[in-house]
Amino acid sequence: xxxxxxxxxxxxxxxxxxxxxxxxxxxxxxxxxxxxxxxxxxxxxxxxxxxxxxxxxxxxxxxxxxxxxxxxxxxxxxxxxxxxxxxxxxxxxxxxxxxxxxxxxxxxxxxxxxxxxxxxxxxxxxxxxxxxx
Length: 133
Prior knowledge:
Layout: E1 12-17, E2 24-25, H1 27-35, E3 60-64, H2 68-75, E4 82-85, H3 88-95, E5 101-106, E6 114-116, E7 118-119
């Protein structure tokens, strides 16, 4: 609301296709994936990335179109590799394609064909999550 009172809260999850080999990511990698003009192994050159021995596996990021305002508030303006799709089914189809895709979607819209990624070792399905954003 205009006075800064919390009106609604989303819990987003980072996800990928179900057969993702290493379902972990850092918050820094999510921020970079959202804003960068290019994706790929350059993410591993960041000293704040927890495990620099593993390559950043995603080439693009995809979200539901109607979540763009909330994610823009959280992450800033998206880069050109962020795909906006109308339905969760469209996200699933895109994730099954040849381009490795990071999916950011509301937790309540996850489905079994996605693998939830741990962000800095935490997942939204654990009771001990510590998400500040």
